[in-house]
Every structure is written in C-alpha cells, then in structure tokens.
C-alpha cells in the first residue's frame, strides 16, 4: 500500500455541507437549560431575548441529525477549510511507538483556533436577524478574535469583555481584535451592574470567564439590537464544530484508515464535541467502538473531579442553568494556571455522554503539558497552543501505552490552535517558574456546596 502522506488534504468541494447533531443519536438527551428564576426548562421565547432566533432553534433541537450549512457560511469556510489532517510520523518515531498518530490541525487561520468555525455561524445568524451587533466574553482571547473576524466579515458591531488578567497579559491578542473592529473591555468592568457588584465584593480580582459572561449577557439584554453569543459549552457550538469531525472522518476514509482512539482537550467541550460527533454517532448506534478521551487541566478538573448537576453557566448567576459536570460557578483556577481550559463547567452533551460511559476523561499537570508541547513543537514543527497541548499529552500517553503493549493502534487527536500569543506561559516554563496547582478536595467541595438547589 502506498505510504500515507504527511498531510491528508480534502478538496474544497469536500467541505461538509451539513453539520451533524450528535444529540440525534443519544438515547439520554442532554438535560434542558433551566430558567434561573423559575427553575423551569427555558422556552424558545425566553432564550430568544438573549440569543439569536435560529441559534435558539439549533440549541433546542435534540432530534434533527443534519443541519444544512448556509452558503454564506460555506463561502467563509472555504477561505480556511478544509483543515489538514496530519500524520505525525516524526512524533511517532520520537516516541518509538507502533501506534499511528494523526492530528486535525485547526490553527491555520488568523484567529489561530477552531473557534472561527462557530463564530462565523453565529455572526451569520445575527446578521440574518437584522441585529446591530453581538456581545461576548473571551478568556485567553481566541474566541474574541474569531468573533471579531466574523463580525468584520458580516459588518456587525462586536463588543468583547475580556478577562482582566488576559487583557493585561495578552495585549497583542487585544490589538488583533481591535484591528478587526471589535471593542474590548477588561472584565470585571464598571460598565455593567454585575461588573460593579463583583468588583465591590472582590476588589482587585483578575476576573474569570464566568464573570465576563455575566457582563456580556447584561450588555446584550440591555441594548436594543444586540444579542449575546458564546464560543463553547452550548449545544449549537458543538453542532457548528462538527465540521471538524466530519472532515476528519472523510480524510481518514480517503486513506483507508479507521480511528481506534480519539482524543481532545476539553475546556467547555466544543472542539472535542465537534471532533468526536460523527464517531460518537457510530458508537451510540452500535456500529463501531472508539475509545474517546477528554483531556483537562488538573487545576480545573470539571469532568474528573466535578459533580454532574445543574449549575449556573456564569459567576453572576444571570444565565440559565445547565446540567453538566461542574466545579461550581464560583470556581476560579489558581492564578499560576497558564494553560487555558479554565471554565468551571462542561458541555451538557459531553457531560451526559461521559456520565453514560461513552467517554473517558484524564487530567494533567500544566508542567507535563508544556513538556509535551515542546516535544511536539520540536518533532512536528507546529508551535501548539497550551490548550491543544493537553490533547498532545493525552495522545503521547496513549501512544506510549501502545508501545508497551506492542499494539499498532490508530490515534487521532485535535490540535486546536497555535500558541504564538502564549509565549509568556512558555517563558515561565523555560525559566522553571511554572508551578502546578491541584485544588484540594476541600476547596472544590466548598464551591460544590454552593450549587443551586434544583430539586
Ligand atoms: C477555546 C480553546 C480551547 C477550548 O475550548 P473548547 O470549547 O473546549 O474546545 C481549546 N483550544 C484552543 C486553541 C482554544 O482556543
């Protein structure tokens, strides 16, 4: 058989024309979002005050397997998709493993991550609805950058609340967003009621994603012609990100490969959910088995140490409640945590699948993750984002297990983005100044004790 190329490219016409909704194959559907006031399932009309109408329809649809991708979105996808599926020959050799390692690289666009796949969809539906603009939060900045690009494309106003610690540590990311026309505010800010409240209660706080979400939602619901958009966690975002998994599957089919193990890093769960969706569909229908692994940081271990319960999606407790693996909406990872993936909860879809035993989860210390990142950069050439490097570490560990057992398995992982704006974290690692912090059971327990009582 001919040698499999380093890069498996699909053609432009092979970009998927529909997104795949993995919920359609789930027997136990993800639990509905609850209204934070009444604790009743959110109705479409209620959600439409916060989110765009068509996105609400996607959010609530647990049954339709495929959603056609509108032509305007496909045209944008064509500028940077299909993304390559790479065979990690050099990494395999470095590890001395008989396993075959593939990675789907989503960092080939200016925003530097997979987030553009959903940003463009959300901006499209906002434009179609005739809105003036959208608000959002961003942590490390990839989502804000992706959304700023998407809003520039559709000529929408874009208002980003950026977690204060990142706003200060990543000025270049901020300037990329402003280049695309977005306005960027450090969060918590004094612009919103919830921001002022958080500042009064926690003076000097460096912010969190949950808190920035509260501010962005408030801004959207108090300004006419604006809606809030979110870059992860929601069902609609996993739906848009299924383009990653569909392309991966098509590329593997093209070279006659079958995945055995599929690995992704998990922050809110969107890249992992998107990557695994079509494979998970097969698994749920009993057509084929895959080992699916979520990798998370030991400092923010929602799947491995959180609780499967209803919780607020934001610190300000203004958003709907989602049933998910959570560390509590008040949880903020230790300040020395540099590796992204800092959200307290996890996608309801992935939470349900994990709860039902269709997925595994592991967590790693950040110094081990950066060691894996460096090994990967030196062997494969790509400078990985710290978030993506969790998946790299997971793939390396599985490949080493294959080496021990003498098994030639096929491992596929998601390389979600590049790390050019994360050099402060790399610098800390190189200088030996990076430490690991694992929260104690008591710390996590204290946040979990404050979970809302939903009966
Ligand atoms: C946002 C981000 C993640 C984590 O988000 P998910 O929703 O869990 O996919 C991972 N990698 C990169 C590069 C990101 O920007």
Task: For this entry, give a set of tags.
16% strand, 15 strands, binds pyridoxal-5'-phosphate, Rossmann fold, 2 domains, 18 helices, 4-stranded parallel β-sheet, 7-stranded mixed β-sheet, 455 residues, alpha/beta
CATH topology of the largest domain: Rossmann fold
What's the mean pLDDT score? 95
Helix content: 40-55%
Taking the sheet with the most strands, its summary is: 7 strands, mixed
By CATH, the architecture of the largest domain is named 3-Layer(aba) Sandwich
Termini Cα gap: 59 Å
- Write down the domain tally: 2
Describe the protein in words.
The chain is α/β, with parallel strands linked by helices and 455 residues long. It has 2 domains: 8-14 and 81-112 and 240-448, Rossmann fold, CATH 3.40.50.1100; 45-69 and 114-228, Rossmann fold. Helices cover 41% and strands 16% of the residues. It contains 18 helices and 15 strands. Strand 10 (261-265), helix 12 and strand 11 (291-297) form a beta-alpha-beta unit. Helix 6 (142-154) runs parallel beside helix 8. The longest helix is centred in the middle third of the chain and has 20 residues, at 235-254. The radius of gyration is 20 Å and the shape is globular. The relative contact order is 0.15.
Give a short synopsis of this structure.
The protein has 455 residues and is α/β, with parallel strands linked by helices. It is 41% helix and 16% strand. It has two domains: 8-14 and 81-112 and 240-448, Rossmann fold (3-Layer(aba) Sandwich); 45-69 and 114-228, Rossmann fold (3-Layer(aba) Sandwich).
């Amino acid at each position: 058989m001919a040698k499999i190329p380093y890069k498996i490219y699909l053609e432009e016409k092979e970009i998927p024309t529909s997104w795949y909704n993995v919920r359609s194959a789930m027997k136990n559907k993800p639990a509905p979002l609850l209204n934070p006031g009444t604790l009743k399932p959110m109705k479409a009309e209620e959600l439409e005050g916060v989110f765009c109408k068509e996105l609400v329809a996607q959010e609530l649809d647990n049954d339709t397997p495929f959603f056609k991708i509108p032509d305007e979105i496909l045209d944008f996808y064509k500028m940077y998709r299909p993304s390559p599926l790479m065979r990690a020959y050099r990494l395999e050799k470095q590890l001395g493993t008989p396993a075959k390692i593939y990675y789907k690289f989503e960092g080939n666009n200016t925003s530097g991550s997979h987030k553009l796949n959903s940003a463009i969809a959300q901006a499209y539906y906002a434009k179609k609805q005739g809105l003036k603009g959208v608000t959002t939060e961003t942590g490390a900045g990839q989502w804000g950058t992706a959304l700023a690009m998407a809003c520039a494309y559709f000529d929408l106003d874009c208002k980003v609340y950026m977690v204060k610690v990142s706003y200060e540590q990543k000025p270049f990311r901020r300037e990329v967003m402003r280049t695309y026309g977005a306005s960027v505010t450090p969060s918590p800010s004094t612009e919103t009621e919830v921001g002022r409240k958080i500042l009064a209660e926690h003076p000097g706080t460096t912010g969190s994603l949950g808190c920035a979400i509260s501010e962005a939602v408030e801004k959207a619901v108090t300004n006419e012609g604006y809606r809030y958009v979110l870059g992860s966690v929601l069902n609609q975002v996993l739906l848009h990100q299924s383009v990653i998994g569909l392309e991966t599957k098509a590329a593997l089919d093209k070279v006659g490969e079958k995945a055995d193990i599929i690995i992704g890093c998990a922050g809110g769960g969107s890249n992992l959910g998107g990557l695994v969706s079509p494979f998970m569909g097969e698994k749920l229908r009993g057509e084929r088995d895959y080992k699916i692994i979520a990798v998370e940081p030991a400092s923010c271990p929602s799947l491995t140490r959180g609780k499967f319960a209803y919780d607020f999606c934001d610190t300000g407790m203004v958003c709907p409640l989602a049933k998910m693996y959570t560390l509590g909406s008040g949880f903020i990872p230790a300040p020395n945590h540099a590796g992204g993936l800092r959200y307290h909860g996890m996608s309801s879809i992935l939470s349900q699948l994990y709860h039902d035993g269709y997925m595994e989860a592991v967590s790693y210390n950040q110094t081990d993750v950066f060691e894996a990142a460096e090994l990967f950069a030196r062997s494969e050439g790509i400078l990985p984002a710290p978030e993506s490097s969790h998946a790299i570490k997971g793939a390396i560990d599985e490949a080493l297990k294959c080496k021990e057992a003498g098994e030639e398995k096929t491992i596929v992982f998601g390389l979600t983005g590049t790390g050019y704006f994360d050099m402060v974290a790399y610098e800390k690692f190189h200088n030996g100044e990076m430490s690991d912090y694992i929260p104690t059971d008591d710390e996590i327990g204290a946040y979990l004790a404050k979970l809302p009582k939903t009966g």
